[in-house]
Write a structure and sequence with these properties.
With 328 residues, this protein is of the alpha/beta class. It is built from 15 helices and seven strands. It folds into two domains: 20-75 and 161-318, HAD superfamily/HAD-like (Rossmann fold, 3-Layer(aba) Sandwich), CATH 3.40.50.1000; 79-149, no CATH class. It is 43% helix and 15% strand. It has a seven-stranded mixed beta sheet with strand order 4-3-2-1-5-6-7, sandwiched between helices.
């Protein structure tokens, strides 16, 4: 009997260790306030992972896609825009005529409002002008150097410390329940890949973004991939479902975006409206005290959320804290 009891105890301990820590937490998503938004996420995940339930989703189909800027971390200013400011300065030192052309001129003048309002095609045009001809390794080194030294102009901390605590918890919660978490952002793929794993736990191969065309260069016996001064794919608006299909080959069952320029509408529609309705999450920036408050000019994302039955997150009401360094 004693031996049998010991075997049971060992088996129970083995099962306990096999369960992800997040799944054992007394309260999933601790940085989220209790309420309908938090509960709707938990209810969806519970349905998706309960075999025999009508909402059950096989593990191989549990794909979750997240926009990056304004969804996983702050976007005032857009981090890629801040990086490009440094790159444009370097490029102008090589070609002074660029200083008289827009958007180079405004960028050089430190127009933060412009950097915050630039859409993905504009940013990618700047990328093409500043990084055409560089190898992938050269670009990655420049991006890493930026992240090591740059600080947010208002908040004064590295950009990688400005990932949203509630969204980091959401990523962990989904992964603990068998979901694959992917980034699908309008930002540059290679730029995000430099920090995606350390910041979000998302490996580089699960990052989808906008890209420049590339070519294989034998490099005098040292093969490299070299970036061209031409845009290949803009992973924004209608381009997001295209990028998702090309990289994943499955439609997401969970997707998150934010209210800014309507760039996430099509991804959320693509996720929500399918034979098995997915979960669409929209982040509303309405917390000027802890982060920023801003709206879209045409209110397109909130309008689409109302029409599509998406879950809208009020940062002010639904999040106990915004950034990891804040007290719980």
């Amino acid at each position: 009997m004693e031996r049998h009891t010991r075997r049971q105890s060992v088996w129970a301990l083995t099962l306990l260790l096999a369960i992800p820590l997040q799944a054992l937490a007394a309260e999933p998503l601790p940085s989220w306030n209790d309420g309908p938004v938090k509960q709707s996420i938990i209810d969806f995940v519970t349905r998706a992972t309960t075999e025999g339930h009508p909402g059950y989703i096989p593990s191989e189909e549990r794909i979750a896609t997240f926009d990056n800027d304004g969804t996983l971390w702050q976007e005032q200013p857009v981090v890629q825009g801040a990086f490009l400011l440094e790159q444009v300065k370097a490029r102008v030192r090589e070609d002074a005529s660029l200083a008289k052309r827009q958007p180079f001129k405004a960028v050089l003048e430190g127009d933060v409002a412009l950097l915050s309002s630039m859409d993905e095609p504009q940013l990618m045009e700047l990328f093409a002008a500043t990084h055409g001809g560089k190898t992938q390794d050269e670009f990655a080194q420049e991006a890493r150097a930026f992240f090591q030294s740059a600080r947010h102009p208002k908040l004064g901390v590295p950009y990688t410390q400005l990932a949203y605590a509630p969204m980091l918890e959401l990523l962990q919660y989904l992964r603990a329940n068998g979901f694959q978490t992917w980034i699908s952002s309008g930002g540059g793929t290679d730029f995000m890949r430099v920090v995606s794993e350390d910041t979000y736990g998302i490996p580089p191969q699960q990052v989808i973004g906008s890209d420049l065309k590339e070519k294989f260069d034998e490099g005098h016996g040292h093969p490299v991939l070299r970036r061209e001064a031409r845009v290949d794919h803009i992973n924004d608006k209608a381009g997001k479902p295209v990028g998702i299909e090309q990289h994943i080959g499955r439609r997401p069952v969970f997707a998150a975006g934010n209210v800014r320029s309507g760039g996430d509408i099509q991804m959320l529609q693509y996720t929500k409206e399918q034979p098995r309705p997915g979960f669409a999450l929209l982040i509303h920036h309405d917390d000027a005290g802890r982060e920023f408050a801003y709206e879209e000019k045409n209110d397109a994302s909130l309008k689409a959320a109302r029409e599509g039955g998406w879950t809208v997150v009020s940062m002010r009401q639904d999040w106990k804290r915004v950034f990891p360094q804040e007290g719980r």
